[in-house]
């Protein structure tokens, strides 16, 4: 059985070893950031569940549309059109489809 050695440059698509090192380090940082983002989203989902439960228990509706519009606006202002899509995804994760 032969083993083929794959160089870091081949894995990263870089043309030089130096660029491969930069890309590898940056990818590690992105992976760590993604793990933190996922954790924050999970925390946001838990907080949202508390809010929804309190609202429903008090006789209110599960979703507050004016608050959701504030969130959409906030993300849109900060990140442009993709921010709106991101906010919609977060809202769906945190409250489900309405």
Task: Explain how this protein is built.
By secondary structure, this protein is mainly alpha-helical. The protein has two domains: 7-60; 63-98, no CATH class. 78% of the residues lie in helices and 0% in strands. The chain has helices at 8-12, 17-57, 65-79, 81-95. α2 packs across α4 and α3 (65-79) packs antiparallel against α4. It is elongated, with a radius of gyration of 21 Å. The N and C termini lie far apart (56 Å). The model has no long low-confidence stretch (mean pLDDT 92).
Short description:
The protein is mostly helical and 98 residues long. The protein has helices spanning 8-12, 17-57, 65-79, 81-95.
Salient structural properties:
single chain; 98 residues; mainly alpha; 2 domains; 4 helices; 0% strand; Chorismate_mutase_highGC-bac; chorismate mutase activity; CM_dom_sf; isomerase
Task: Describe the SSE topology.
Layout: H1 8-12, H2 17-57, H3 65-79, H4 81-95
Helix pairs in contact: 2-4, 3-4
Query: How many separate domains make up the residues?
Result: 2
Which structural class should the secondary elements be placed in? Answer: mainly alpha
Largest sheet, in brief, is: none
Alpha carbon gap, first and last residue: 56 Å
Q: Can you write the helix and strand succession as a string?
A: HHHH
Kindly state the number of beta strands: 0
Strand content: under 5%
CA-based gyration radius: 21 Å
- Taking pLDDT < 50 over at least 5 consecutive residues as the criterion, the unreliable ranges are none
Mean pLDDT: 92
Shape: elongated
Determine the fraction of residues in helical runs and give it as a percent range: over 70%
What's the total helix number? 4
EC number: 5.4.99.5
GO molecular function: chorismate mutase activity
Organism: Streptomyces nigra
Keywords: Isomerase
């Amino acid at each position: 059985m032969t083993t083929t050695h794959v160089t870091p440059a081949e894995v990263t698509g870089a043309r030089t070893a130096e660029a491969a090192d930069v890309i590898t380090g940056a990818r590690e940082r992105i992976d760590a950031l993604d793990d933190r983002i996922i954790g924050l989203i999970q925390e946001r989902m838990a907080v949202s569940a508390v809010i929804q439960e309190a609202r429903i228990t008090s006789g209110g509706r599960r979703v507050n549309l004016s608050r959701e519009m504030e969130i959409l606006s906030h993300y849109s202002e900060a990140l442009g059109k993709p921010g709106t899509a991101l906010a919609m995804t977060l809202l769906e994760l945190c409250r489900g489809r309405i």
